[in-house]
Design goal:
Layout lengths: L4 E3 L9 E5 L9 E6 L8 E6 L2 E12 L6 E8 L2
Length: 80
């Protein structure tokens, strides 16, 4: 399986995508991300801006909405 990188560093959090901590007690358990973009699949990488750094997450699972078809909810885990 070919993993693709999806760069969201130029996108505005809270406007272009929503990122929520999966477990309030530990960010290390992952995040839920809701966004819109075609072509995102499990095991792909999502690159986000965090302050002056970029952070890479792996798409552990993803569910696509029916309408609009490019909207999805993904569970992300931080790449080490």
């Amino acid at each position: 399986m070919i993993r693709k990188d999806h760069d969201f560093t130029q996108h505005e959090p809270g406007y272009d995508y929503i990122l929520e901590v999966a477990d309030e007690e530990s960010e290390s358990k992952g995040f839920y991300m809701t966004g819109q973009r075609l072509g995102i699949k499990p095991q792909d990488n999502i690159i986000l801006q965090h302050g002056s750094d970029t952070v890479q997450y792996r798409v552990a699972s993803i569910e696509h909405y029916i309408d609009p078809p490019d909207m999805w909810l993904a569970f992300l885990v931080k790449e080490s």
